[in-house]
Amino acid sequence: MRNNRVKCSLPPLSFYIILFSHQVLTMAERRRPGYSIYREILDEEAVDVIAQKLFLFVKSPSLFHTHTLRCSGPRAKRCLLETIPILSWLPRYPIRENALGDLISGISVGVMHLPQGMAYALLASVSPVFGLYSSFYPILVYFIFGTSKHISIGTYAVMSVMIGGVTERLAPDSDFMNWDNVTNSSIIDTVSRDAQRVKVAAAVTFMSGLFQILLGLVKFGFVVTYLSEPLVRGYTTAAAIHVIVSQLKYTFGINPKRHSGPFSLIYTILEVCYLVPQTNIGTLVVSIVTIICLILAKELNAYLQKKLPVPIPVELIAIIIATVVSWQVNLEQKYGVDIVGVIPSGLQAPVFPEASLFGQVIGDAFALSVVGYGILISLGRIFALKYGYRVDSNQELIALGLSNSIGGIFQCFAISCSMSRTMVQESTGGKTQVAGALSAVVILFITLWIGSLFEDLPKAVLAAIIYVNLHGMMKQFMDIPALWKKNRVDMLVWVGTLILTILFNPDMGLAASIGFAMLTVKQVPGIFIFRSSATIYFANAEMYQDALGKKVKTQTYAFPMTHNAFCFPCYNKVITPL
Length: 578
Fold this sequence. Notes:
two-stranded antiparallel ribbon
């Protein structure tokens, strides 16, 4: 039988083309939104006309300025929120999630501000109460204008010792010597001396704040990137040595002469060694006992870190115990132990710094502005990277500058941020600068009502607190063997910065260290770095190639490896835009 087969003719090719086009169109419709984009096809003549119009627009100052300086509502709002960051985050503050942590953190950091503020005021050669002022006003200003959520603004050892060098240079003891007819000897008018030193500290602080504001307004926040990590760590280590040497007089109960200028640290050490036989035994005993107790307490703190929600405030406990013992035993009268003295209650009225001092402190103020900002932005970026937010470097300059300039009007000395307080603020649950504002409230309470209770506190205890708090900086000496293995040029920068800062004052040492670090920068043989200011694409590739050829004074041959890399016969490395 013949097989019955169904005959079917194949559709024409146009059928498959239409079907395929329909399927492609259907898939495209599913992928695309419900709108279409129309673009005009331009020939070469039309492109030239548009380019000419754009050229005329850019060359016309009136049109250009009208466009760039236009003040619309959204632009004004954006500028306001960028200038005053608190307006953007405080209205959306999550009370349930952050309030408890910020409260605990604020109280903990406020407790730390008390001993550190009083101790670092001694470094600045001013009365301890001005350390409390410096722990109050600048914090509130940074709370409004700062962009970091975790750093703790306030007194800092390196800044304080730099200010101390300025205050003792411009208001030395020799300028306030009076003859006492009763004892037939010269005595120091400490009241007038301390008042003048406060004026000097306020003037240099105000000037440093103005420098920081100016640098922030001209978008100069990037300048700190040229301070390499070895330079910063070597500088802070040397500054810590300056701090330790400056506190030896309180530890031994002696009065060495104040030296300034190059090699002043060496002269001070020699002077202290010469006066060691005159050591006040009572003061030395207080210092040694306090140092031992603080070290043991901090080790206990580290051991119980995971078990305790809040670190033990060992510095505050040490201050309270030392004050009570000094008051009960009468250490000043019986053993000649130097104490803090009168601490006035309340806040000082704002006073504009003396303009006559500005010319004498302008160099020191610029050094303070750079060092303070470098320390602040380094810590700020560390915690911003850890918690996934951005710190605006230029806004940080402005915020720190406003903190210092306004603080100078309220007789504060220059501030930055402290690693120890920042770590406590972060580890105790602080998530925003509300914690910093609460720590300022704690300081306000102490200043208004209980500050006078610490008048019998021995200065040797404050010096001991400084020694123990600087142990972290002294551990930076371990950078030397690590850098020896990793990069000996960086080690040379670290050691050179240390030596130069020790031999000179911290301000002069910073300038000398930057100059020394720049001498270590050189071009690697066989490598030429060329940066393009625009994205490389087909229209400007040839122009980029020609410009690069002119820079290296040769001619390119090929496009090896990448679309934006060119190879030259005289260089053995591929040259790519950064």
